[in-house]
Amino acid sequence: MTSARRDEVMGHRATPARRPPPAGAGPLAWVRANLFSSPLNAALTLVGVWITWTAAYAIVDWALVRAVFTGSDGSACAKEGAGACWPFVTAKLDQFIYGRYPAAERWRADLTMALFAAGLAGVMIPGVPRKGWIAAFLLIAFPAIAYVLLTGGHFGLAVVETEMWGGLLVTLVVAVVGIVASFPIALALALGRRSRLPFVRWSSIGFIELVRGVPLITMLFMASVMLPLFLPEGVTFDKLARALIGVALFEGAYLAEVIRGGLQAIPRGQYEAADALGLSYPQKIGLVVMPQALRLVIPGIVNSFIALFKDTSLVLIIGLFDLLGIVQQAVSSDTTWLSPSTPLTGYVFAGFVFWVFCFGMSRYAQRIERRLDEGQHR
Questions:
Q1: What is the residue-level pLDDT of the chain in tens, covering all 378 positions?
Q2: Which CATH number fits domain 84-101+160-376: 1.10.3720.10, 1.20.1740.10, 3.40.50.720, 3.30.70.20?
Q3: Neighbours of 82 (CB within 10 A)
């Protein structure tokens, strides 16, 4: 019996074939639906295109068309109508990266950066085996190796005082140490603020509110000037070390509130389920609660880290020359490269370097979010 006859016997009527719906995909359909769906949308699209074109044309004209690419001093960039003075960046590139770090010892800074980049890549790239060992190397062995390499004084290495450090080297040191050191501080403060013990809870609240109520510059001044006053006589800290302490405490207070928001978003049932399994408090927090809380607040954590990376430029206030500080010093002190376009070129270069690092952190965080969200979709 044919299928049509079977449908007649059973009382079913065959549905007549229909033509497929018109195709709504493709670039033109997307443009029509998203950019020109209404007169107001079309007007805003045209205005946005005009603004983008004007800005892009001005940037390309200044950075490439009218730019100067060769020269040994600022005279080549002092011509009327000249654009970016890229020879200035080329001539000062070593200073921008290392500051006043001795040229003969800069291989130590290069080796430190290479070891950190290799370890970070091993942790971040999916599929790399033995991530636990790599993470242990970054958190335990690498800080000691980096300290010995950068400061010297051991294994025949010449001593290089931190006053000689500068440029991108100081920016990375302050940012990396601040991020790594502030995270456990933030975890402790976030858990302490939710503690049932009054002393722990109110101490955490007091510290968080006190630190969040002052700017980072104040924390840097306190760490640089006031911290030595509370130390025993004869005990002192390096200026860079004091700045690192201030940055870590400041970032820890802000990051604690981000993590606390994730802890509050965890349903009460998760705590009760962990208690029902007989887990201890550290097991409940480390295995059940904290992984879920951190996944929820990844955007906030990354936003705090990006803000910290940019705030490293404030260490110039206490006499440490980071990348932006070195650029400013090179622009204002070296009259050889005096020209109308030299300052803007240096600041654009510094801004581009900051943007590369911040954009990289943002994109990697988005990738982590997508990977973690895969298990949430059904």
A1: 555 555 555 555 556 666 655 555 577 888 888 888 888 888 999 999 999 999 999 999 999 988 888 888 888 888 888 888 899 999 999 999 998 899 999 999 999 999 999 988 888 887 788 888 888 888 889 999 999 999 988 888 899 888 889 899 999 999 999 999 999 999 999 999 988 888 999 999 999 999 988 888 888 888 777 777 777 777 677 888 888 988 999 999 999 999 998 888 888 888 888 888 888 888 888 888 888 888 888 888 889 999 999 988 888 888 888 899 999 988 888 888 888 888 999 999 999 999 999 999 999 888 888 887 765 655
A2: 1.10.3720.10
A3: 17
Whether 108 contacts 157, CB under 8 Å? yes
At what angle are helices 298-311 and 239-264 packed, to 10 degrees?
Answer: 160
Q: Which two tokens stand for residue 95?
A: 């200073």
Helix extents (H) in the chain: 3-9, 27-34, 39-60, 86-98, 106-124, 131-136, 142-151, 168-193, 198-212, 216-221, 239-264, 268-276, 281-283, 290-296, 298-311, 323-333, 342-373
Q: Please, which residues bridge with residue 99 across strands?
A: 165
